[in-house]
Amino acid sequence: MTRFFDILFSALGLLLGWPVLLLITLIGLFDTGAPIFRQERIGRFQKPFTLVKFRTMRPGTASVATHLARSDAITPWGRFLRRTKLDELPQLWNVLKGEMSLVGPRPCLFNQNELIAERARRGVFDARPGITGLAQVNEIDMSTPALLAETDARMLQSLSVADYFRYILQTIAGKGSGDRVRS
């Protein structure tokens, strides 16, 4: 049932949100020269896919989890995008393609070995990764791999349609601050 909502809301989001997406892209051109960020992530059944986001860090920043990145790598425009979570909007394309869901565990990088092992052990990779979920609205990020994997597994075991909408609404309302960045 949630796949139906994923398709419906991602298609509507892309269709109705294209002016915002275009504006953010144009501002991003002036900010970094490369407003779209693509990164290979681990998806459902541990298959790789290319995640698409708005760029919030300077081009050439090391491809590491956000909590390992330096805060000075984030541009002022990028800080705004992260704070408002607008940097996530291009992932609606990943959702529409079936690589992601609106709600699910955040997709990790291939170099996050501890998180990958913890998620594999708990069956988290059986689900599509998501833009938001229980961990994100509770400010649990990839800096605590065991806790994150445990929270993801708990969410997936009991995920209902009501939870799906609740996590989306909590994210839109600003609950959860996103991944921590080193100072």
Largest beta-sheet characterization? 2 strands, antiparallel
Compute the number of strand runs.
Answer: 4
Mean pLDDT: 91
- What Rg do the Cα atoms give? 15 Å
How would you sum up this structure, described in words?
The protein is mostly helical. It has one domain (2-172). It is 47% helix and 11% strand. The protein contains 7 helices and 4 strands. It has helices at 2-31, 76-84, 91-97, 113-122, 134-137, 145-158, 161-172; strands at 36-42, 48-54, 101-103, 130-132. Strands 1-2 form a two-stranded antiparallel ribbon. A two-stranded parallel sheet has the order 3-4. α4 (113-122) links the parallel β3 (101-103) and β4 (130-132). α1 (2-31) packs antiparallel against α3 (91-97). The chain starts with a helix and ends in an 11-residue tail after the last helix.
Topology at a glance:
Blueprint: H1 2-31, E1 36-42, E2 48-54, H2 76-84, H3 91-97, E3 101-103, H4 113-122, E4 130-132, H5 134-137, H6 145-158, H7 161-172
Parallel strand pairs: 3-4
Antiparallel strand pairs: 1-2
Helix pairs in contact: 1-3, 4-6
Task: Characterize this entry briefly.
This protein is mainly α and 183 residues long. The chain has one domain (2-172). It contains seven helices and four strands.
